[in-house]
Design a protein that fits this description.
With 78 residues, this protein is mainly alpha-helical. Helix content is 60%, strand content 0%. It starts with a helix and ends with a helix.
Length: 78
């Protein structure tokens, strides 16, 4: 029961009131969305369910080393 409540709360928090047109405007606005942001979105979209670990995205975008996710975490302010 608690899991269901948690999922409902998370869904409400994650929901957005942006329209498709507004979201498109944000993506096309170079003051808001960088080329790296767009690359991250494109890469995420290529995964099944549009979900991936930052390390998976980092490797595809060419980041190497022990922490290919590090630069992405900085970009996303995580």
């Amino acid at each position: 029961m608690l899991g269901t409540v948690d999922k409902q709360i998370k869904k409400r928090i994650m929901a957005t009131d942006l329209t498709k047109t507004q979201w498109t405007g944000i993506l096309l606005n170079e003051e808001l969305t960088t080329e790296l942001d767009l690359s991250i979105f494109r890469t995420l979209y290529s995964f099944e369910g549009h979900k991936a670990f930052a390390s998976q995205v980092g490797v595809i975008l060419g980041y190497k080393g022990k922490s290919p996710h590090g630069a992405l975490n900085l970009e996303m302010k995580l």
